Amino acid sequence: MGASEKSISIPLDFPDWLSPMVVKEIRQGLRGWVFISLFLVLHLCLLSWGCLTLAANRNEGRGGDHFFWFMLVVGMVAIVARGIFALQSERSENTLELLQISKLSAFRVVSGKWVALMMQVAVFLISLLPYGILRYYFGSFNAGIDGKIFLFVTVLASVFAALAVFLSCLKKWISWPALLLVGGALIAMMVNNGVRFDRTPWLFFIGITALALVYVPFFIYMGASSFATDSENLATPKRILGWLSLVPGIACLAIGGLRVESSFIVFLLGVPLVVLAMSDALIAPSTATPFAVRNFRRFKWVGSFAACFLAPNRMSGFLYTVTMGLIAGVIGYVLCRVWLPSFVELKRALGAIFALLSTAGLITYFSASLSLLVMRRRPYATAYLYWFCIGIQFAAGVILFYVVTEVIDQSFRPFWAKVALVSPVGVYAVMCDLYSFAKGYVLLKPAIFACVVQWLLVMGLYSVTLWRETKKLRRLLRNERPDERL
C-alpha cells in the first residue's frame, strides 16, 4: 500500500493505557439521563441569558455577568454532588466483592469514580466557551479576576467531588447529613465573608490549589480504606498527606508574610485534613499480615524508624499524632512571637495554645480509647462511636460554657467554674481565663492540676489498647504473623 493510500487514523475510542474502570465510569456518566438533563437545562438557561443580554444591548453587562457565574457554580455543584451515589449502588447490589476479586485495587476503583466526575465537569466547562466569548463582547471580561474565579471554582469542585465519592463509601445515614453539613457550611462562609477576587493576591489561589492536590488523594484514600484489604496499606499515604497538608500554609506564610490574612487562611484550611489524618491514625484497624509492611523492612533500621510513625498500626498512629501535636505547638509559638511583641500578650496567647492542644488531645485520646475498648468485637463501628463521642463532648462543653457565662448568677460562677474542671473543655475555658473573670488567675492552678489528672487517666485508659498494638508492630517488622489472641 502506497503512502498516498494511507488514511489518517483518528482515535474513535479511549486509549488502551486508560484504566477500564475509568472508561466504564466515564461512559456511564456521560450517557446517563441525569447528566444529559442537567446539561440541557443549564445550557437553556445560559442561552436565554445570552439572548436577553443581546436584546437589551448591555455593553457594560455586570448584572448578567453575575448570572453567568451563578449558573457555572450551580452546574458544577450539581455534577459533583452526584458523586454521593458513586459507590452506594455497588454497596446496595453487593458488587464490591466482585471488584475486589479483579486486579483493580480499592484506590483505583475510587479514583476511577472521581476521574469520571471530573471528566463530566470538564465537558461542562468546555461547553461554556461560547458564553465566555459573549462575555468578552458584552465588555464584562477581566482576565485577572475571571482567572481567579475560574481557578477557585474548579479547585472547590475537585475537592467536593472527592469528598462526595468518599462519603458514598459510608452508610447513607452518615453520608447525606455530612454532605449537607459541609455544603451548608461552605455556602454560609461564602455568603457571610465571601472572597474579594479583585483584592485577594494570586498567592492565596496558588495555595488552595496546592491544598487541593493534598485533599483530593486523601479523600480517595479514605474512601478506598472502607473496603480495601490489609495488604494494600493505605494508612501510610494518608499519614504522609496529613503532614503535607501543612506545607502549602507554611509556604504561603513564609512567602506572603506572617501578617497577611489570606496566607493565614490557607494555613487554617489545612487543619481539617490534619484532624482527619490524626483521627484515622488512632482508630483505623491495624494490619495482621507482614505483607503490608514489606516496604519498611527493605530499608532496615531506617524503615523500622519510619514504621514507628507510618505503619498501619495503632501504636504507630499514636506516635504520629504526638508528632503532629508537637508540630502544631511549634507553629503556634512562631506565630505568637511574630504577632504579639508584648510579653503579657505572648504569655496569654501561649497559654491559650497550650490549653487548646491539651483539650484537643484529651478529647481525641479519650474518644479513641473508649471506642476501641467498647467496639473491640465490632471494629467496623469504631469510627462511628469515635466521632459520636467527640460530638457529645464538644456539645456538652458548649452548653456548659453557655450556662456558666449566661445563665448562672455571677456570685455562683466560681463554684461552677470548679465544677467545669471535670471536663476537658472546662479546663480549656479556665486556662484561657474565660471563667476567672474578676479573680485573675485564681483558678489557674486548679485547672493545671485537673489537666494533669485528666491526662493521667486518659493515657492509662489508652495504654490498655496500646500494649497489644506494640507487640503486633514488633512482630510485623520481624516478618512474623501476629498472634490473633493479642
Strands, helices and their partners?
Layout: H1 20-31, H2 33-56, H3 62-81, H4 88-92, H5 96-101, H6 106-126, H7 129-138, H8 143-168, H9 172-192, H10 202-225, H11 235-244, H12 246-256, H13 261-269, H14 271-283, H15 294-297, H16 300-310, H17 314-339, H18 343-374, H19 382-407, H20 413-420, H21 424-431, H22 444-477
Helix pairs in contact: 1-6, 2-3, 3-6, 3-8, 6-8, 6-10, 8-9, 8-10, 10-11, 10-12, 10-13, 11-14, 12-13, 14-17, 16-17, 17-18, 18-19, 18-21, 18-22, 19-20, 19-21, 21-22
Order of helices and strands: HHHHHHHHHHHHHHHHHHHHHH
Helical segment tally?
A: 22
**Unreliable stretches:** 1-8, 435-440, 482-486
Q: Which band does the percent of strand residues land in?
A: under 5%
Largest sheet: none
C-alpha geometry: globular
Describe the fold and architecture.
The protein has 486 residues and is mainly α. It has a domain at 18-202. The protein contains 22 helices and no strands. The protein has helices at residues 20-31, 33-56, 62-81, 88-92, 96-101, 106-126, 129-138, 143-168, 172-192, 202-225, 235-244, 246-256, 261-269, 271-283, 294-297, 300-310, 314-339, 343-374, 382-407, 413-420, 424-431, 444-477. Helix 17 packs antiparallel against helix 18 (343-374) and helix 18 packs across helix 22. It starts with 19 loop residues before the first helix and ends in a 9-residue tail after the last helix.
